[in-house]
Amino acid sequence: MRALADLHNHSCLSPCASLEESPSLIARLARERGLDLVALTDHNSALNCPAFAEACRREGIAPLFGIEASSIEEVHVVCLFGSVDEALDFGESLRGRLLDLPYDPEKLGDQVVVDADEGVLDLVGYYLGAALSIGFDELCAEAADRGAIVVPAHVDRPMFSVSSQLGFLPPGPYDAVEAMRPLPPELSRGFPVVSGSDSHYPEHVARRPFAVELPEGALDPSAAGSLLETLREALRSGRARPFWDSAARSGP
To answer: How much is the pTM?
Structure first.
């Protein structure tokens, strides 16, 4: 089966995202805009993943749960898990590694933990947009050791990417790399290339999905435990196409 996936979305927990961008809104817009598989990837935290799991269940859309982690070099990495608990555990491990920077919500934005009905549960009082005190290589290795799908984020952007911060993509345990446009070979190093919306506002949801061929039934809720590994295998075997590829826009 051909599925449309978007694995890079921020909710109101991310300080740079719109307060409108609740987990429930992401799930609803993803369904309305034709996505089959969607992930939540807030900055350095997975605290809105429980609400996202319930929202996706209500909308009948397959979820993955992740974090966009920022290395000490300020390289962003999307780390995806198959369960809420795994994502929360990884987020907790990152909590003590966040650089202690002054945080002013009025200047930097609120960081809101919500439930699936958009009720406010908490306001995070430390800055989630800071870099972690862990290098890019170690960050990717730790996420991979925990079983995550590891995707260096927007590798071709002029900020917060391997190209802007490091100047190249080092060898690593990646399952794919995310790009905004067709990549030169040195920035993909032979890894599969996917696109992602990196949504921070409602209008961003589903703007840059990628197409992936998955086995029939892979997105069934009863198969949720194996979805991460099924997707990993599809990525590594070259069955994904970014949004600019004509094959991603064609029918089944």
So the answer is: 0.95
